Each structure stands twice: as C-alpha cells, then as structure tokens.
Amino acid sequence: MASLNSRALPAQELLSTLPAAPMLDAATVRAARALARPPVLIVLDDDPTGTQSVSNLPVLTRWDVEDLEWGLRQETGGEPVPALYVLTNTRSLGEAEAATRNTEIATAALQAAENLGVRVGFVSRGDSTLRGHYPLEPDTLAAAITAHGGAPIDGVLIAPGFPDAGRITVNSTHYCVIDGMAIPAAETEFAADATFGYASSHLAQYVQEKSGGRISASDVLAVTLDTIRNGGPEAVAAVLLQASNATPIVIDFVVEEDLRVVALGLLLAQDRGRTFLHRVGPPFVRAIVGQDQAPPLTGTDVYAGLTPSANGGLIVVGSHVGVTTRQLARLKEASPETTTVELDVPSLVTQDGTDHPDRAAHLANAVAAICAALATGNVILQTSRALLTTADAQSSLALSRSVSAAVVTAVQQVLAATAPRFVIAKGGITSSDVAAFGLGIRHAIVRGPMLPGIVSLWEPQDGPATGIPYVVFAGNVGTDDSLAEVAAKLSA
Predict the structure, then answer these.
(1) Is pLDDT of 2 > 60?
(2) What long-range pairs does 231-234 form, CB within 8 A, spacing at least 24?
(3) 235 vs 242: CA distance, rounded Å
(4) What is the rounded distance in angstroms from the CA atom of residue 185 to the CA atom of residue 196?
(5) 360 and 239 co-located in one domain
(6) Residues 272, 305: one domain?
(7) 130 and 232 co-located in one domain
C-alpha cells in the first residue's frame, strides 16, 4: 500500500487547522471513575521512564505475587491506588525473554488481584518514539489474561503520544516536535534504532509493518482529533465499541485534555462490557486515572523528611542518543567542577559481546575514582560515547546488556563504599538496571516530575538506597539544558 507518512512541517502549521481543544479537567475524570469503579491498572513499563508523567504511585522492580500484593495495597490520598507500575526492562531483552517476562508478570498480577479481591486491567507502556516489542507485548498479555480465565480482549488502544516531550499524533500520524518542526517519527534518529527500527509514521501502517502484515492497516480503528474534539466521549466510545478480537485502535492526541476525553469514552465502552489493553506512552496513565499534571518538584520537596548525604551526587549516563550527548556536554559546561569518570566500552566488552580480559581492573579503577571524587562534589559516570557496531539486533542487545552490567557493578560497589547525595540515571536501560540491581530497589514510590511533565523522582522503600533520591531520566527527553537543571536542583 502507498505510504501514509507525512512531510515535516512547522508544528504551528500542523496544529492551526485542528478543532479547538476540549475544556476538561482531571477532576471530571476522577469523578467518572469514582462512579464506574474501573479496574486497577497494572502498568508493565518496558523501561522506567514511563513513570515520569505520574505521581504518588507504587513501582516494583520484582514481580512475585507478594510484590504485586504490596503494590495493590498502597493508597494515595486515602484511596487505593488507581495504577501501579512494574518495571519489566523488556526493551533490553530479546523477543523470547520479553514474552516470558510479560507472561510472568501478568500471571502474578492476576493471582495477587484474586488473592485480594481486586479487579485489574493491563497497560503495556512503550516508547513515545515507537521503539520496543510491539505487537509482541500486548499479544502476550492478552494470551496470559485468557489463560487465567479472563475475558478475551476486544481492543488494544495504541497511544504513543507524549506532548510534554514533543511527541504528538495527528490524523493517526505520529510526530516528534523538534525545534518547532513537526517531524514524522519515521524520519527521526529513533526510527533508525539498531534493534527496533521502523519505516512508518502513520500508526495504522506502523501496526501493519510491525505485525509483519498479520494485521492490515485497513483493519486498524482510529480515534481522531475530530472524533475527540467534535464528538466527545460518546463518539470515542462508538469507535471503541467497534473493536473485537484485539483490534488495534490508534489514538490521536496533542494535549492532555484530548486524552481525558478518551478516558471518559473508555469508561463508557467498558461499562458496555468491552475489555481493552493499552500500548501507550508515558502520559496515558496519568490522564486515564484522572491525575492532575503535577508541578515540578523543588529541592525542598525532594529532601523533605530525609537527611541528605554530605557527599556529591552520582550522575550515571548510559544513553547514546543525540539529545543525551548534548545534555551531557551542557552539564559539564555548567558545572566544570564536576568530575567525570568514563567506562571505556572497548575495555569492558569485545565486539562479539564477551567480557574483555581487562574488564574487572577497569571497573575497580573507575569505582575508586568515583568514591574519591564524591567526597568533594558531583560525579558523572558515563560510558564512552562512540557506539560499537554489531552484526544484528540480537548482538546489539547483547552488547548493551554487557555494558549495562558493568555500570551496575560500578554503582553497587560505590554504594557499598559511600552514600551519594542523590543518583540520576540517564537512559532507559541504564535507569532500569541501576534501580533494580545497582541500587537494589525492589519497591519505590514515584513522587513526581523534576521538570514539567518529564523526569521522575523515585523514593526507594527498601534496600541499600533507602533515603537516597533516585531520578529516572529518559535518554530522549528534555532540552539541552535539562540534565544540568536537574543536577543543580538536587545539589542546592
């Protein structure tokens, strides 16, 4: 079929012809949910940056039944939490491992819900720039739900937008807004990802591409901005009610209010007996559960109730996308006193993914340098910026995992020797592994964003990092100054 991708154009031009945005606040969604009593959402987050749009919700890095029960027992504002996050880190895994992990988590969540008498639904949180295991993950969840005796899935909402980070969907085409230009996602650096690359910006065609033609673009339903803004919740519900047998439904949105209309339409469709899964970007859960867009946390907020370490903070940078490289350079310019310790990737891992003979010695030297420098200020732990090329996607993932394992080892050894004032992890795979293994976080509470709508603060609830603020910073979000801004806020 002919490409449906659009050209790059000024964002203002793209948005100027759209119907007026709806006026709908989060309180209206909360009130509708209070009447409908929808299921608690179990959000399987393929890297921890999915939490950056929400606040005061639990996040788990382990998924035994007892862990899910802990999450389901948490409260916010005196009410049971409307959603909880489980960090899967599947974006760093191959397909077979990703499928197994999704099945394990869904099965444990369904058992925990049964034990507690709670109804649950599922969200597969994916990348706002369309990377990740799609359609594998929602397909796997749907199979796990029915295997446990749950109702078959009627539709899968696909809503990758993330307006806070410049990712919007208009007429089913997904754009990244960069320097005022709305660029179709397939024309950005993210589409050239070594593991999850793609060629289609139009989401129906993306579904066809990623499903290998199993799902035709013509069979994909669309909730457009015209439906949302001119038709309202009933019109949205009318589209959703057409779904059966896990029909993909692509969702336009440009502002939070668009998603709130979708939230009300979803409640109507669920009330009429339909069951849905969701494959979404970070802000979807916030809008669907009726959370307000939380203001950025201040330094006072971050350290409330804590006794900060006298040491500097540790800033771990693993992402290699262009925006991270620019942010890292700007951080060093803004804080020239910050020490940088670099893990040289060729000294850690060979081209075929095996450990380099000098790996242990290289790590020991790096850890000693970090511990010494933390006594006087902040330290950047970064991996060398030159990407090693590999033969295929699986080799690329294997190399990434090996490098990430080295970063984890360094963080573990630093934490065993001294307590940083804070830890920032930059990059999805990096922040996942640092949280779960480097810092030993099993349960945490997401307190809110460090910048408007992006970059989340976790408060560890257990393990050696208890009392150390942990900031999850996606590799592909923010301006060139954002990393420096967050580091300055945490250092004040």
Answers:
(1) no
(2) 232/22, 232/261, 232/264, 232/265, 233/261, 233/264, 233/265, 233/267, 233/268, 234/265, 234/268
(3) 11
(4) 13
(5) no
(6) no
(7) yes
Residues 420 and 402 in one domain: yes
Report CA Rg, the chain: 22
The secondary element (H helix, E strand) that includes residue 380 is strand 379-383
Which DSSP string do the residues of 430-456 spell out, in sequence order? HHHHIIIIIS--SEEEEEEEEETTEEE
- What φ, ψ does residue 376 adopt, rounded to 5°? -120, -5
Q: What is the pLDDT of residues 254-307, one digit of tens each?
A: 999 999 999 999 999 999 999 999 999 999 999 999 999 999 999 999 999 999
Give 198-210 pLDDT, tens digit per residue: 999 999 999 999 9
pTM higher than 0.70 = yes
Structural contact between residues 97 and 57, judged by C-beta atoms closer than 8 angstroms: no
Containing structural domain, residue 260: 9-289
Strand-strand pairing, 247-251 and 339-343:
unpaired
Contact 158, 207 (CB under 8 A): yes
User: What is the CATH number for 125?
Assistant: 3.40.50.10840
Residue 204 in domain: yes
Contact yes or no for 42/137 (Cβ under 8 A): no
Residue 3 lies in a domain: no
CA–CA separation, 120 and 83 (whole Å): 9
